[in-house]
């Protein structure tokens, strides 16, 4: 198991045979095991070691391990704990789960049972820790979502720390919806011009006849409808930053004028005779390959050289999936406030679908999907049915074959915990698995192999549940 590599596990078990079997199994998979045979020994280990997981035998020579569980949880509320019990002690194990244990195992347990319990505990614990950490990070500031935790974004932010304090022109590249404007705003906020204005301009949203007026303004009576002086975006950005989004859509006829402004830091208003100083920093962004546009004669090479003194590339969301939980935490918080919706949680099955999706619309699409989900969700948890068909795999009412793990997680998310006891739920699942294996296999030996247990264990469970 990848989860066990370099993990430190506290095993509290007084049965030497069980302890030897468990230690050997865990160490084979790369874990470091700290073994204790009593509560006192375990408490001493816990005081001096950083523990990633605890396996606690319920009955120990010096008492019940529920007291140790409470102490471990007080030290680390997120520590995953698995209780190990003799048969007939399930009620006590369930009580310990109310105190914070994630799971329990019945002795004697198979190798596969141990592996599944540990995998489940570490996976749930990892998700829980990550969500809490990301929620704290999302509360840290406006640019927290764009910062991310992926190596690609960490590298970008190292470069930002270097270039933000300067006045160098910056070109941000990347697909639509990756957060180029958010990054530009963060650069402005970290610069020496932070107290000045940040003026965003969508170069693709201005007609060719109006782009010069939009950028540089006009004098009174410069043309028929110019009744008074109008300051353009470059002038409005004085002592601040102008953000030229979709710079690749800038009309070719306008590019020489923009180049002159970048070189001389001055411009003329339309109809004006006096030069105006352009005391601004220029950050541009594009989703186009500007070098290819230069080769095709659609963009000036000298303008490209002026714009990309420093280039930052925003990776698409599919290449930084580690950042998706952080973005989700931030968007759920902000959208919940703007929509005036109660706090909603994201189910594990919905999270798996969101992380697995390729996000052609990137961060912008993720935000829209979460807004839709918050509007549709009437309960506490956002479920897969609140997500659009392109994410859940539905096409024209035909549902793609679901991931079995997602089905289990959806059942766990939806199941009312007071409707069935822990032991009853386990018995139902075990019965279904046994019936399916016996149906599909030609012999009991094959069925035992399919279920990852010995023939003797299979015989025990067949007798336990009265199967044939």
Rg of Cα set: 31 Å
Uncertain ranges: 130-145, 395-401
Q: Would you give the CATH topology of the largest domain?
A: Rossmann fold
Which sequence of strands runs across the widest sheet?
2-1-3-6-7
At the fourth level of CATH, the homologous superfamily of the largest domain is: P-loop containing nucleotide triphosphate hydrolases
Largest sheet: 5 strands, parallel
The average pLDDT value, as a whole number, equals 82
Total strand segments: 20
How many separate helices? 21
N- and C-termini, Cα separation: 34 Å
Please state roughly what percent of the residues sit in beta strands, choosing from under 5%, 5-15%, 15-25%, 25-35%, 35-45% or over 45%: 5-15%
Estimated helix fraction: 40-55%
Structural class: alpha/beta
Named CATH architecture of the largest domain? 3-Layer(aba) Sandwich
Count up the domains. Answer: 4
**CATH level 1 name of the largest domain:** Alpha Beta
The shape, in one word, is elongated
